[in-house]
Amino acid sequence: MNNLGTDVIVVGAGPTGLTLANELALADVDVVVLERLPERTGLSKALNLQPRTAEMLELRGLLDGVEERSFTTVRDGHFAMIPVVYDGWDTRFPFQLGIPQAKVEEFLEEQLAAQGTKVLRGSEVLTFVQDKDSVSVRYRTDSGEAQLYAKFLVGCDGARSVVRKGLGVDFPGVDGEGFGVVADVLFDKAPDAAQKQWRTMRNIGEPTGATTFKGLIPLGEPGLYRFIYGDRASRPADMRSGISHDEVRTALLDSYGDTATVSEIRWASRFSDTARQAAHYRDGRVLLAGDAAHIHFPAGGQGLNLGVQDAMNLGWKLAATVRGWADDDLLDTYEAERHPVGAQVLHNVAAQLGLTPRSHESRALRALFGDLAALPEVNRYLSGMVSGLGIRYPTYGTAHPALGARLNDQHVLTETGPLRPSTLFRTGDFVLLTTTAAHTDAARSQATRLTTQLVADLPWPSTEAVLYRPDGYACWVAPTPTR
């Protein structure tokens, strides 16, 4: 066996693991990413980045690179396929970014390599053991078994997480009763009703029966669509069985008749409405993030985004702990903040599934809910929930409208002119916006790594300074002294 050492081992090179690894590398933390698969699959999988995820990528200067690989922007989201818009949220990105998960992974891995860190592919974790000082991970490669020691281990290895199972952490939830299929289909002739460009969630999906559904999403390439179908009240005996191309062709014929002709089915996969969440996200020196911590039906397009936002929350906290900038207790705030967010997503997904039009009563409920969703306050609540824009972390002490809230990234006026505050977050430091330098020392007592920016004013009355965490949430304010 080979004995190596590192600060953090990240298991899994999906969007969550790669985001976390980038955050750690940015803070000069030595990180190793172990990925079971020998190469990226290239499968499109998830298709969207929500507005809050776009905001977080912008904090690191990564959004432009992601946008270059995207194929569309979608002006609205949805709740149970009822469209909701992002009006009422103060965001520069009031849209979903249409981009295949494979492109997100490709970009994040390139950024990680540019920081000098590579993914060790074909590395399958077998077992791990932790003590009070370190974690020892045993894994298998084509060359045989190897062992790697680290200060911390993070499982970002998906729904069947080896790390979660190795911890023995409970994964309570419900198995559900339905299923869905996603397939990327190339048409010679697309169905007449299919949209040519994906600009809205309206008319993307629809019920085909009391519990069955179908949908088509254009993927930016001529004739290429994401075909979605399923049944929320029944499922195959073996949910892990492969999807044959004949099954997909039959479903297309049942859904759209012979008005469409298919030239190629590029891939297909089955998913379920099982909903589970890890009882704990941390056990000593081992943590969980992304699908290793929570799984759910992909209603509202929240899954990939939830994992990336987990990683952004955990990254700076883990870096601060490893580098000795913070006490170990800071890591406990990861679970304290993100576990309720994950629970809320599982809750809203269950509510969306509850709007399945199974009966006369449920159809009436769905119609009434659609009317309510059009009301501005209800729309804002729903869109903030599925987009991540509505997340606000609890804070203690002084009550202030900024505390716990996200950076809105509107221009601030400085001595050299207008400035986007997001540009101050590129190095992953805390950011202090202050109208007077007198608060700098106080802010440094809250954060070792600090970028300070003098501004002409702040958008809150009687406020002289606001301190933002590296993930863009306000954690400290200084009120204007009373005269």
Automatic annotation (TrEMBL):
Pfam families: FAD_binding_3, Rng_hyd_C. Signal peptide: none annotated. Residues 6-348 form the FAD-binding domain. Its cofactor is FAD. GO terms for molecular function: FAD binding; oxidoreductase activity, acting on paired donors, with incorporation or reduction of molecular oxygen, NAD(P)H as one donor, and incorporation of one atom of oxygen. Keywords: FAD, Flavoprotein. This is FAD-dependent oxidoreductase.
